[in-house]
Amino acid sequence: SAKSRSEADWLIGINATQALSVAAGQGVFSLGRVQTPTLVMICSRYLENKNFVPAKFWQLKAHTASGGISFTAQSTAKWEQQPEAIAALQRVKDAGQLVVKSVERKEACQEPPLLYDLTTLQKEANTKLNFSADKTLSIAQSLYEKKVMSYPRTGSRYIPEDVFDEMPERVALLEQYPRFAGYAAGLDGTPLNRRSVNDGKVTDHHALIITENLPGELSKDERAVYELVAGRMLEAFSGKCVKDVTTAILSAGDTDFTVKGSVMKVAGWRAVFGEQETGGDEEAASLPPLQEGESLPISNVELLEKQTKPKPLLTESSLLAAMENAGKELEDAELKASLKDAGIGTPATRAAIIETLFARQYIVREKKNLVPTDKGLAVY
User: Fold this and answer.
1) What angle do CA 79, 80, 85 make, to 5 degrees?
2) Would you call 151 a catalytic residue per the annotation?
3) How does pLDDT run across 23-39, given as a tens digit for each residue?
4) 95: Cβ–Cβ under 8 A, 6 or more apart, which residues?
5) Alpha-carbon dihedral sign for residues 65, 66, 72, 77
6) Which of 47, 90, 224, 262 is the most buried (most CB within 10 A)?
């Protein structure tokens, strides 16, 4: 692999860079075996997004209530023609009530997330703290040098058995860390979740965890990254989150409507940061108990005009994911298979590659989005 890397660097990094720069007749246009495919991902997503033509469609939303609890349900059908949607709206109004066709209740268990590897930490820090991948790596490196965090340049999200044996002590250590003290105390003495323990999946370095040293003075940014890692460690060794999820299908005037509700039974690992899931529309309302065959009054039904949306522009977080899973978008089955589980770049170099694209003036940041410059598009 070292030989093929050095050959690719000669062919692409040295020869192709020279060839393109000579052909351009002005300035230096650098190409590279990792930076250029990465630039391609940014450019093609940008062009796809920019040239996207949204299509309109219509949906119905019904307002109803049962046992004093009101809720809304959306039609399962989507109409591409407005007159058809209006006709359906009229039939629903004429029916005047919704009949409960089916109610499905099931318990949903969510296992805790795995520990962080470098890429996952960079993605989260980009989403939650707005840090660049490069900044996250240098902060993680500094925490490692301060001996409060394990080696950061890791591509594994697992720890071996011998490290797992030390985890009860690490959890107990966080009882002295104000932000997590209460939660850590609650984990004390309970059997820890073994989902992140797997000797076979630990590469040269295991997943990111905190060390046996409590941090002293840290900068604000260092503290933020330390708390992401410490919090994720607590989550990974916690019990699962259990919810009751109810899905109901209601119908009126030959249109089916659907609504979803959920009740948290056991918060489990979600209690570490006390975060609600952000599911947009999915985040379900609390539903009244519904019975099959029950009729509910319709207080209002409205026509929603919506439009199809393009794939969003890449952010540093979604680009890191795209680099990690670079084969996913490929049509060619053989090429796809060869890139499976490999991706492009390595956890340790991805941040530097993205920084290189900025330095070459191929891309710029617009808010969180990565957008190609004219120069970047010219290379593409």
Assistant:
1) 40
2) yes
3) 999 889 999 999 999 99
4) 252, 253, 298
5) negative
6) 262
